[in-house]
Amino acid sequence: MVGRGWNWVGARAYGYNSISYGVCFIGDYTSTLPIKTALDMVRYDFTSCAVNGGRLSSYYNLYGHRQADSTECPGNSLYREIQNWAHWESIMQVTDFTHS
């Protein structure tokens, strides 16, 4: 996994960048999924690291990029996949991004 670090503010979804973390899978996931290793790294390792390190509330909510901005990202297949992950929320609210 490659990242810019915890203290960088992204530029992926106007209005949410400073109150959320973004994860990018590079590729076209309209009809296929990323490899299982990559999915598991984000699903389990990244979130566990963020929560255990005090960077993310254990009550975090998970959203797809298309919920915050007008985009097809993360692709239909990946979007369907993350809907089965813990913390998935179908309705996005800015108050869900409180950090404790």
TrEMBL record:
Transmembrane segments: none annotated. Residues 1-69 form the Peptidoglycan recognition protein family domain. This is Peptidoglycan recognition protein family domain-containing protein. SUPFAM superfamilies: N-acetylmuramoyl-L-alanine amidase-like. CDD domains: PGRP. Belongs to the N-acetylmuramoyl-L-alanine amidase 2 family. GO terms for molecular function: N-acetylmuramoyl-L-alanine amidase activity; zinc ion binding. It comes from the Eukaryota. GO terms for biological process: peptidoglycan catabolic process. It holds the Pfam family Amidase_2.
